[in-house]
Every structure is written in structure tokens, then in C-alpha cells.
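Give me C-alpha cells for this 649-residue protein.
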Amino acid sequence: MTAELVRGQNHPLPETRLEIRVSVGKPIVAGVTLSDDQGKVRGTDWVAHPGSPTLPGLEVPRQAAADHRLAVDLGAVPDAVHRVNVLLALPVGVGGPVSFGSLAAPFVAVTGLDGSEVASYTITDLDAESAVVALELYRRQDAWKVRAVGQGYAGGLADMLTDQGLPQARELAGSINEAVAQGLARSVAAPPPRSSDDARVRTTGQTAAPGPGAPGPDSTAAPQPVPAPHQPGDASATTGATGGPVNYTHPSRQTSAPPTPPPVAAPAEPGKPAQPVAGDATGWSMEERLYNQVWGMFEDLARTTAAYRSAVDFAESRMDQELDKVLSDPRSRIGNTGDLAREAARAKHGLLVDRARAALDRDLGQLAAESEVVEPALPMAYAGWDSPVWHAYRTPMEIPMAVRLGDLHLPERPDLHIPMLVRLPLERGLWIDSGRSSGTDSLADTDELRRLAMDSAVAHAARLLAVYPAGEFTVHVIDAAGSAAGALSPLVTAGVLNEAPAAGAAGVSAVLAKLTQRVDLVQMAIRAGAADALPPDLDTAEQLLIVNDFPHGFDDRAVTQLRYLADEGPAVGVHLMMVADREDAAEYGPLLDPLWRALLRLTPVADDHLADPWVGHAWTYEPPMAPPGSRVLQQVLDQVARARRTGGR
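Here you go.
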């Protein structure tokens, strides 16, 4: 849960690799100073600013902008550093605001690299100040904490740096202001004005549900109107004063990434958007940058669609009000005057909708162009089954940070698919819903839906087996009635299952007993701090249990064990994949409600049951199936089985 700090409050930091996100509404300068245990800045080489944006473990933006992302790795800062101060300042001599009192309250958030927000702080009560120390990250007993500071300085950067004990404060402040002035051509344009209620601008990389920032479970609630966000098409790449190309394809996503900068796009022609580049996001590796870029595209699509829908709702509301006004006046209900008023109201409505659609089409076009560049560059774990990377498949040596579980799209642009990436290891189980849903043909055969659901489960299991190193992922199957023999044949034929699918009540009981015992043993070892005391024959690989046709073959004890695995298993490497129709288990009543809520619901056919964490759109989910007639899935499973037999070679 995010900690919303007030001035002077502190909060522990759960990790050392972080992002600091800043939103103000007008271009400002962001920087960082390092202080020793006495709170003193020892020299100019302890200050990261637009003229010198990198220090060990730190990178700040190179220009003024309305929104900033600062990359921080507290584990890489020098041992002599005890405080990391985040500074905000208004550019000097550029005709902009001269004090924070004339701006919306700055919003600052500390997030993990996956976009999950750790702490946030809205800096209120600023008046004549033109520079402010927003946050302080400080060491406390070999751990790091964040404190909300909000200390403002009417004298600007010079007074702020002087107060931190820097001898060359005024000279450095002058050089920072000069660097900012020279880089104004590279500044990101300010977004539309924000009301005080919209002072918080948040962006994120895995959700919530499937990882931080991902879609939540079943949601069909109507989305609420939101203020217009940054639009992807608003940014362009221009050449800065130093002659180097700078790409800001998406203002809400900073392009530079420590320690190795990502590729940048070539300068765009004036008036044209920059050409998108794969890996154009923050991150410490190309895999991480692509992950963050995909979720940035997901968020951009969600917000730009929300802006369009909000604009259309406003246009319709305004037209209804004007028509009501015409009808409420008896003199204008009939005759030429009433007709002209109704025509004018409809014309205004059409103009507003056309403008909103033009803005949406512009942004969708830019996102589609980015998708065309990003999709072919995705690594194996993120790629679709139709990607060429699978033809050169080799068992990986390391576990990837995420895996693709399907595609997501909105009705405004059905052909623009965003990969649904979920962090590994899985934080919750999966439920492949074999029942009817909103995306199911009313004439669809029940047996056909069950077959499609099991095919989808096998495709998910195959992908998980493929992205883990050899021997580090084990799959168990419960098929009590033996009805899924055909769908399971790729797993059985390849030999990637350690044992045959369990059938009958005895088989169900044996598998559940073994996995619940594993959960108990690992939990006890963790609590006792004695991981080396685990039995030598215990399989330490991640475990996946596929359950087909639940609750067939399950008694009350087996149901209780299944619920236990769903709740306690993910934390100790035991994951559940249910293939079931909830109606078949209706006899259990509300007893199983916690089980369904604990699982991420997926469907074997396209269905709009997932919601994004930003504005609550109902996204259409499409399962990741191999192309018809393709043998890629079987070939990958054969390679997995071969690597397991040869120890990964």
C-alpha cells in the first residue's frame, strides 16, 4: 500500500533500486545532491543536475520538463553518502513562473522499477519559493528511508545549495541555470492545465493483478471521466544545443536508462512525431526497458482512450443541455428558431466529437507505429507464439522478469494489441474459465469450450516451462476423469511431466498431499531460517499444478487443500492453474468465493473482463495460442525435455 506522506514524515524503502517521479504542470528543473553524515555536500561532484546528469547510482533529466523520472540505485552510491536530496527549481530568466506559489502543488512519488508506488508526497503551502528540497532518502541502521521535506527557498538554487554547505553554491547555481537555458529547445511541453484536484499524475510500468500495474480481475464497471493525460503524439524529437538527438516519444516516459542508455531515435522533421524506438524506456537492461515500454504503451492507450471517451461524454451532455433549453422555451419549440437552435447544438456536438476523434487517431497512430517496432524486438518470454524468436529457441540460463499471458485491446482500435506481461514468479494462480462468458457465442458447445480452455492451459504451461531454466519449473496435472488426454498430449508426448496426469480420487489425493506437504516444509524452513535443512529429495523448482474439470473427483478434504495451495502456495513457489466452470462448483456456494478471487481469471476466447488500474477500462483479453497448423509449441516442448535430460545443454 502506498504511504501518502506529510511534511516531516518518513517511510522505509523496501528496495534500493527506485524511481523518483515528479509532476508539477509547468517545466521545472530536477536534480539531486548527496550529503555526508553531517548533512554537508562535499563538492560539485556530489550534485547531479542538467549540466551533469549522472553520478554513481543516480541519473536525473537533462532539461526542464513538467514531469520527471529520476533513476536511483542506493546500493551504488558511495559509502560516504548518507543522504540523497531531491531538488526542484524553477528555470531562471525564461519568462516562466517565478515562484511555486503560482503553480499547482508539486507531486513527488517514490516507486519501484515495476512502477509500484512506495510513497508519495504532495508539497503544499509553497508561496514565494523558487527552489525546494522535495524528498530526502537517508540511511538508518544499514537501511534506507524516505522523508518528506518540502523545504523551500525564495533565493532559488543558490540559497538552497548554500544551505547544504556547498562552498561553490552560487557558481554551480549559475552553471545549472545556464545549462537549462541552453537546453530549452529540448524541454518537454507542459501538459494541459490541471485543476487542484488533479495535481497527482501517476504513471506505472506491472499491475496490480498480474504483477504491479496490470489489469485487475473481473471488471465491467463503467469508466469514470478523467482529466486529459499526456498524449503520445504531443512529443517530438528535436536536436539540442549540443547537437545530439533527443527523443521524447512519450512525455510520461523518460528515455535515458542507467547504466547503459537505450537507443535514441533520429531527429524528427518539424511538425512530425519522432520515430519510435524499441527499448525507449527506463531500465537497467534491454529486457527491463522493453517491459517498461510495453506497460507505458498500455497506460498511454488507457489514458488517451479515457480522454476521448470523456470528451465524447462532455459533447453529448452539452448537446442535451442545449436541446433541453430549446424545448423548455415555448417560443422556440416550433418554427424556424427552434430548428436552427437544434441544428446548432448538433453541429457543436459533431465538432467536439470530431476534434476528440482526431486527437485519438493521432495518438493511436503513434502507438501503432511504436507497437510495430516493439513487437519484433521482444525477447522470447514477451513474444507471441508467432514470433521468429521461437524458431531459434534455446533453454534460458536465467529466469526472465516477466512472461506474456496474452494480448489486450480496446474497441477504439481492435488491431492495436498490447502484450499482457505478468511478473515472475507468479504472485497469484490462474483460472482458465471454461464456462460461458460475454465473448462466447451463445451457440457454442460446452464440450468445445472445455477443450479450448484446456488447450489454453497447455499453451500457458508450455510457455512457463520454456522461459525457465532447465529443471527449474515442474508441472503436475490433475485430470480426475481423464477427459483432457487429447489436450495434454503435447506435454505427455514431449516428456516434460515428471509423472502421468493424476486420475481418480486416489490420484487427486496423492498429488494434493505431496504439494501441501511441500508448502508446509518450505514455510517451516523459512520461518526457522533453516533453508539448508530441507529434505534432500525435495524438488526446489517452481511447481505448477494444472487442475482440469474442477470439482470433479474432489471431496471436501481435497477442496480444502486446493484452497490452501491457492492462498499459501505462490509465496513458496507452488502455483495453481484451474481449468473450471464456476457454475459446476455452485453447490459449494460462497465457500469457494475466496478461491476464485485468489486467481487471475483468463478466458480461452476473446473476452472483455479485465480492467486496467488507471481508469478502469474493460479490456478485451485474447489468449496466447499458437498459429493454426504450427508445430512451434511441440518443438519448444521437445527442446525443453531435451535440456532437462542433458542438464540444460
